[in-house]
Structure formats: structure tokens, C-alpha cells
Design goal:
Elements lengths: L4 H25 L6 H9 L3 H26 L1 H34 L8 H23 L5 H11 L1 H4 L7 H16 L2 H12 L5 H15 L6 H5 L17 H7 L11 H25 L6 H10 L9 H15 L7 H12 L11
């Protein structure tokens, strides 16, 4: 395996110690009245910068030889090793970027909602990654537990590893798995809306909501105007973000990849904060312009908002994101509950009446 940090540090310590002893030896060899210029030929052989460069080249050579050995003899393990190395590089880049964003927010007094879209999305995703990584870090604290952690990471990469340590193939596969788990809650959410519609006093709005749910259940895609026509129902009882039943909130939580296994008041607070964050992201994205996103950024934006973008074309993703932003940018902060339900309204049957789990 590549040289460990401990071994490198021991080499560095030995070199420094040799340097100190060389300096002392030089003092004994040369009397005090001998000038420094006359000592340079001997000192030049023990230059610390040259030693560091030599060690650096040696480590690089050893790593190259090791990676070449793995690539030839154990190609599957080499892919895992390479993914981990690249993953750590990406993670460190994210840490540096997040520190820069936080420093800018602190020094310039910039609030989260005023950040550019990419910086806002970086902070959101980094926080979610760190929350997922904490349990793995806690498991690895006891002595020799790192060997167990490595085995667990190898056999359970989706459950334990963050996206930095997934291969490109795993990223597509795991997003599909997570989306299928999310889609299982589409039907319960629609049934919950139907049940809540019986408590709506305005007969016209009640009929509009029931027609909207029936249209989605039949496999059709609703229009943006049909969704916005019932927006007033999602700012107060029974469908406001703080007025929904606990059971209904438990079905909405997985749409945002949030656990439903919490007390009701905590679920309500988390849903409210994540919904407002998503609304602020949409406003920042609208300021930037969806056409400015790269293909990977576009697919990620659609995936976060409820669409399985890996099975769709880029133009389909752009069309869907445009519809989403038409709904999102028309809503007030008090109407964010409709934004959460739009995950089901807009993505359940897109693009041509795709079936989803019931």
C-alpha cells in the first residue's frame, strides 16, 4: 500500500534530526572564525528543501508504483482505491469552498437567501453530506475500528458513504434506488390530500383540489395553472405547512429525503425549514437563469425537486425545471406547502404518464 502518513512523518522526523546533528557536527569541524561562505559546500549537501523535494518525489514514485501494481493485478480493488483517493480530493475541495463562502457571509454580512445559486446549493449539499458522514466517523473512533469501517464501506456504500466516494455507475444506481423509495409516497400523499379536501369549506376550491388529485392519479400531467389555482388552500388549515396532520407530514418527509421517524413537532419544523430553503434556492436559480446550468447541474437540480432525471434527456429536464420554477416563483413564503406537494403533482407522471408505486 502507499506510504502511510505515520511512516512519512517518521521519515521527516529522522531527516530533521539528522539535520540538527549535521549542524552540530559542522560547528565542531569548523572553528568560529571560519566564515559561513567556506561552510557552504558541506551545508549544501544537507539542504532541507532538497530533502523535502527528495522525499516528495520518493512518495510520488511509490504511489505510482503501487497504483500500477493494483491496476494490473487487482483491477476491482484499484477502482475502489482510485474512487476513494479522488473522493477525498473532492471532499477537501468542498471544505475549502464552504469555508470561503462562510467567511464571505461573515465578513460581508451576506445572508443565505442572498447568496448566488451555486454557493447556496453547495452549502445545502455539504450540510447533508456531513450529517450522513457523522455516524461513520463515530463508529471509527474506537481502536482498530477502522478495519471494520472499511469492510462496512465496501459492502454498504449506499448506506454509509457520501456521494464523493461513489463511482459514476454507483451514483446513477443509488439515485435510482433513492428515487424509487421516494416515489412510494406519492400515492399516500395524494390520498391524504383527498382526505383533507373534505374539510375544505369552499366548494369551488374543494372541487379543484379533488380534480387535480384525480388527474395525477389517472396518470396525466397537470398544468401549472391548475396547480396555482389551489394555492390559497396551502397557506392555512388544513394543508398549510404548520396545519397538516402528522400522518400527512410523515408521508411528505421522504419526498425531501427526511426521516419520518421523529416526533410530530420536529417533523413540522424540519419540513418548514427545508421547504423555505428550497424556495430560496428556486429564487436564486431564477435569478441565475436555468439555461446557465451545466447538464450535470441541471440533472441534480431536477433530482432534488423530485424527478428521476437520469432516465430523461437534457431537453426534458429543462422543460420540467421551467414548469417547476413557474410554480415556485409564484409562491409566497406562507405557501411553501404547495411547493412540497408539487413534487408529486409535477414529477409523478412526467414525461408521458409513467407509472409510479402505489
Amino acid at each position: 500500500m502507499a506510504l502511510s502518513c505515520a511512516r512519512v512523518c517518521s521519515h521527516l522526523s529522522l531527516v530533521r534530526l539528522c539535520g540538527l546533528r549535521t549542524n552540530r557536527t559542522t560547528a565542531y569541524l569548523y572553528p568560529p572564525y571560519v566564515s559561513c561562505q567556506s561552510r557552504l559546500p558541506l551545508c549544501r549537501h544537507y539542504s532541507s528543501s532538497k530533502v523535502r523535494r527528495g522525499i516528495g518525489r520518493y512518495i510520488q514514485w511509490a504511489n505510482t508504483k503501487y497504483e500500477g501494481f493494483l491496476k494490473r493485478r487487482i483491477p476491482r480493488f484499484y477502482q475502489l482505491y482510485h474512487t476513494f483517493i479522488e473522493g477525498f480530493k473532492l471532499l477537501f475541495q468542498d471544505v475549502k469552498e464552504v469555508r470561503r463562502i462562510k467567511a464571505k457571509m461573515s465578513s460581508d454580512g451576506v445572508k443565505f437567501q442572498d447568496l448566488p445559486y451555486r454557493e447556496m446549493e453547495k452549502l445545502r449539499q455539504f450540510r447533508r453530506d456531513m450529517i450522513k458522514a457523522i455516524p461513520l466517523v463515530m463508529i471509527s473512533i474506537p481502536p482498530f475500528a477502522n478495519y471494520l469501517v472499511f469492510v462496512l464501506m465496501y459492502f454498504f456504500p449506499r448506506q454509509l458513504l457520501i456521494r464523493h466516494f461513489w463511482t459514476p455507475r454507483q451514483q446513477v444506481e443509488f439515485r435510482g434506488v433513492y428515487h424509487s423509495l421516494r416515489a412510494q409516497h406519492n400515492w399516500p400523499v395524494l390520498k391524504g390530500l383527498e382526505h383533507a379536501s373534505h374539510r375544505i369549506k369552499d366548494g369551488h376550491l374543494q372541487s379543484r383540489l379533488q380534480d387535480l388529485c384525480a388527474k395525477v392519479q389517472s396518470g396525466a400531467n397537470p398544468k401549472v395553472s391548475e396547480i396555482l389555482a389551489v394555492r390559497s388552500l396551502f397557506s392555512g388549515p388544513p394543508l398549510g405547512i404548520k396545519r397538516m396532520s402528522v400522518d400527512h407530514m410523515r408521508h411528505i418527509s421522504p419526498l425531501l429525503f427526511l426521516t419520518p421517524r421523529l416526533p410530530g413537532f420536529l417533523i413540522g419544523r424540519r419540513l418548514n425549514s427545508h421547504a423555505l430553503e428550497l424556495l430560496q434556492l428556486d429564487r436564486a436559480l431564477s435569478r441565475l437563469g436555468p439555461h446557465q446550468l451545466s447538464d450535470s447541474e441541471l440533472r441534480q437540480a431536477c433530482y432534488v425537486r423530485g424527478l428521476n432525471s437520469d432516465i430523461l434527456g437534457v431537453n426534458q429536464c429543462r422543460e420540467w425545471l421551467s414548469q417547476w420554477l413557474q410554480v415556485s416563483c409564484s409562491l409566497k413564503d406562507s405557501e411553501v406547502s404547495l411547493l412540497l406537494h408539487s413534487i408529486v403533482f409535477l414529477s409523478a407522471n412526467y414525461p408521458n404518464g409513467l407509472k409510479w408505486s402505489r
